[in-house]
Design brief:
By secondary structure, the chain is an all-alpha fold. It has helices spanning 3-10, 17-20, 23-43, 50-63, 77-94, 99-113, 121-188, 192-241, 259-305, 310-334, 349-361, 363-372, 374-392.
Length: 397
């Protein structure tokens, strides 16, 4: 049985229902729905009263098309009262499932198994949510990898620069000690031959100490050059996507700058991009992914409980938006260095406890969790409002 054809047949016209309403057609539709509810109740081992089944069968017998030479029959008031009471009892027995949710769930199952070739609006929405979740996850995964490479390059470059500074200071200290020793030799030795030998010994010892450091410095400078080239290539990737902005390294005259200045420009541009990714784009995508996962899980639970309805699917886009907003807002509240992040020491006990827990999760995971469960965000807001309300409320003397 193709349930999608059945559910499409139950949809009313777009015209005014009062003008197109037909009592007998309404009863015929209700009888079909009652049979669906009886079948659903039987499949799920729910007890249906025999009197209800008799009332439904009696109504179906009355509404059965008569012979060609017969007269069209209508149910008596007593039969209609018994039928609608049976209908009400069945609706109570199968709750929270409804006829719409039963047909929608079975129709989706038939679409997934290939039994039905009809593409229902509900099926299209469910497939849209699935693809939306997969695309969001894919974009997030790619951007995380991109962020990881950029962040690792910046971290390596900063470590290399620090090592170069340390090596240069060590070499400078050796040269300073060499100059001091030479000055002392000049002042304390009058014999020219002895002075020459002393200088030779001092310079040789200085060279022995500085030679390994010079080799290390050369290697670090080569690594620095490689890291700067990697950072330049990383910058060109994202600047190619953000084509509507002209960056400093794309402007005329950049090539005429000295290499050190060019490297500093590339470094600053990479830091700005990493900050935008980690503080804005990635939290938003994590929140959106959490919200999309919640929507898919909610749809699965509704399908399992046979209570999926068109109104449920209609509310899902709003849930995506709420999850995205709450996830981003919560990540900003706990992000290190964010101007919107409150200090735990300056907040009340409940708020401080919540902030401490969220800070332990980190901004990205917090965005995902808040996107999955918007109740966390609204509970946090209620806690803040309640804390201010308590401060402003004073007992009447």
């Amino acid at each position: 049985m193709d349930f999608m054809k059945l559910i499409h047949g139950f949809k009313p016209n777009d015209n005014d229902l009062l003008e197109t309403y037909d009592h007998k057609t309404s009863l015929e539709t209700a009888v079909k729905e009652a049979h669906i509810m009886v079948r659903f109740a039987s499949e799920h081992k729910k007890n249906v009263d025999d009197a209800d089944i008799i009332a439904i069968s009696a109504m179906q017998s009355v509404l059965t098309p008569p012979p060609k030479n017969g007269l069209e029959a209508y149910p008596t008031p007593q039969q209609e009262v018994a039928f609608w009471k049976a209908y009400e009892n069945l609706a109570t027995i199968i709750a929270p499932a409804t006829v719409e949710s039963i047909l929608m769930t079975r129709g989706l199952c038939e679409e997934m198994t290939g039994e039905s070739k009809t593409r229902s609006p509900a099926g299209r929405k469910v497939r849209w949510y699935k693809w939306f979740t997969l695309i969001t996850f894919g974009v997030l995964f790619v951007l995380q990898i991109f962020w990881f490479f950029g962040n690792q390059t910046i971290t390596d470059l900063e470590a290399i620069n620090q090592s170069i500074i340390v090596l240069e200071n060590q070499i400078s200290a050796i040269h300073a000690a060499e100059s001091k020793n030479l000055d002392e030799a000049n002042n304390n030795t009058a014999d020219v031959n002895k002075l020459a030998r002393s200088k030779d010994i001092i310079e040789r010892k200085s060279a022995e100490k500085s030679y390994p450091l010079l080799n290390q410095l050369t290697n670090k400078e080569h690594m620095q050059e490689a890291a700067n080239l990697s950072l330049k290539a990383w910058n060109r990737v994202w600047s190619g996507f953000v084509f509507f902005i002209t960056y400093s390294f794309d402007q005329e005259g950049f090539s005429r700058l000295n290499p050190y200045t060019q490297n500093r420009v590339e470094y600053k541009a990479a830091l700005s991009t990493l900050s935008a990714l980690s503080n804005l784009i990635l939290p938003l995508l994590f929140a959106l992914l959490g919200s999309a996962v919640y929507v898919l899980r909610s749809i699965s639970q509704h399908i399992e409980n046979n209570d999926l309805s068109s109104s449920t699917l209609t509310r899902m886009p709003s849930r995506l938006i709420l999850g995205m907003i709450s996830g981003v807002a919560m990540s900003w509240l706990i992000m290190p260095g964010s101007p919107s992040a409150p200090s735990i020491s300056n907040t009340s006990g409940d708020i401080a406890q919540t902030l401490g827990l969220l800070k332990s999760l980190g901004p990205w995971l917090t965005a995902f969790v808040a996107g999955y469960s918007v109740e966390i965000f609204f509970s946090f807001l209620d806690t803040i409002i309640l804390s201010f309300t308590k401060k402003k409320t004073h007992p009447v003397q």
